[in-house]
Amino acid sequence: MIIVRYGEIALKGKNRKTFENKLIENIKKTLARKGVDAKVRSTQGRLIVDASHEFSEIIRKVPGVVSVSPAWKMEYEEIPEFLSTHLRNMNPASFKIDARRINKAFHKTSQQINEEIGAFVVQRFGWKVNLNQPELAIGIEMIEGQAYVFFETKKGVGGLPSSTQGRLVLLMSVGIDSPVAGFLMLKRGVSLTALHFDQGHADLARQMIDVLNQYSSEPIELIVVNHLEYFQPYVTELERMGKREWTCVICKVLMLKKAEEIAKERSALGIVTGDSLGQVASQTLENLFLESSVVKMPIYRPLIGMDKDETVRIARQIGTFEIFVEAARHSCPFRPSSVVTRGSTYGLNKILEHFKSKSLWQG
Ligand SMILES: Nc1ncnc2c1ncn2[C@@H]1O[C@H](COP(=O)(O)OP(=O)(O)OP(=O)(O)O)[C@@H](O)[C@H]1O
C-alpha cells in the first residue's frame, strides 16, 4: 500500500471532490503508463494506492501530492509481530512512534497507541526513545479501523492536479530556465504544449520533455521548428537595414508570435517563458515590454523574480539540470556581437513595418 497525502486540494471547498477525483485519475493514468493497473481510493483526506512500494517515487511527482509513505496494512493487534520481524536486523540509536487516528472511530487515542507500541519496541529491542530527533520514526496511521505502518514519508511536488487549469504554450529552449518555468506551471495544474526552436539540439529538448512528462498526467506535445530556416529571412533583412543588434529582440518577438499562433490552434490561454529580469543583457523591462506588445494573449513568466541559484535548485530537484549542456546554450549562429538592451517602440515598429513591406510580417 502507498499512503498519499494532499494538502491544497483539501482546502478547495465544494470543488474538493472534483479535484480529488482528478488526482485519483491522474495517479491511475501515471501508473498505467508504467503498465500498472492500481486501485486508488480516497478516505479522510488521504488516498490509499494499492501498488508496490517502488511506485511511490513515481506517485510523489504527480502534482497535487504533498507526501507519500510506502506502508504495510494490518490489524492493530498484528503490529508487534510485524515490527518484530521487519525491524529485527536494525539497530537505530533511537526511535519514536508517530501514531495518528485519521478518523476518530478507532477505540484507542494516538497517545495510547504511541505508548503501547513504544513500550513494546523498548521491551523487544531495548532501543532508546527520542521524541525530537529519532533515527527511526515508526509511523502508524489508523484508517477505517486498519493500521497502516510505515518508516518513511517522501515529499511530493505539491500544487494542484494536472489538467485542472487549461492549456498554455511553453517556449522551451534547452537551457536551465524554461524547463523549470514549464514545471512550475504543470505543478499548478496547467496542461502544456511545448514549442522549441531547434539549433541542432532537438534530442535534448525531447529529453527535457521526458522529464517534464513525469509531472504531467497527459503526454506533453513537443513542436520543433527549425531555428535557422525560420529566422534566416528576418536576419537577412536586419542586415540590410543595418540593425543586426536587434536580432535577439526580433527573435523573441517571432518566437512569441509563433507561440501565439499555436496557442490559438490548440485553444491555449497564454504563453509561458523562462524569462527572469536582468538575467541576461537583453532581459530588461524595456525589452520584455516590447516583446510582450506583439501578442494579444497573456505571457506568464514564473521565474521573473527568481535568482539563478533558486532556478538551478529546482532544475536539479526535478531532473532537468543534468540534461542542460552549457555549449548548447550558445549555439545561436545569428547572435550579434552587441545586442539592444533598451529597445524603443519606435525602433521596433520601424523594423516590423519593413518586414511587412517584404511580406514577412502580418502584425
Ligand atoms: N530555442 C528556443 N526555443 C524556444 N524558446 C526559447 C528558445 N530560446 C529561448 N526561448 C525562450 O525565451 C526565453 C528567454 O531566453 P534567453 O535565451 O534570453 O534566456 P535564458 O535565461 O537563457 O533562458 P533559458 O535558460 O530558458 O534558455 C527562454 O526562457 C524561453 O522561454
UniProtKB/TrEMBL annotation:
One of its GO terms (molecular function) is tRNA-uracil-4 sulfurtransferase activity. It holds the Pfam family THUMP. Its EC number is 2.8.1.4. One of its GO terms (biological process) is tRNA 4-thiouridine biosynthesis. Residues 53-153 form the THUMP domain. One of its GO terms (cellular component) is cytosol. Catalyzes the ATP-dependent transfer of a sulfur to tRNA to produce 4-thiouridine in position 8 of tRNAs, which functions as a near-UV photosensor. Also catalyzes the transfer of sulfur to the sulfur carrier protein ThiS, forming ThiS-thiocarboxylate. This is a step in the synthesis of thiazole, in the thiamine biosynthesis pathway. The sulfur is donated as persulfide by IscS. Belongs to the ThiI family. This is Probable tRNA sulfurtransferase. It comes from Pseudothermotoga hypogea DSM 11164 = NBRC 106472. The lineage of its organism: Bacteria, Thermotogati, Thermotogota, Thermotogae, Thermotogales.
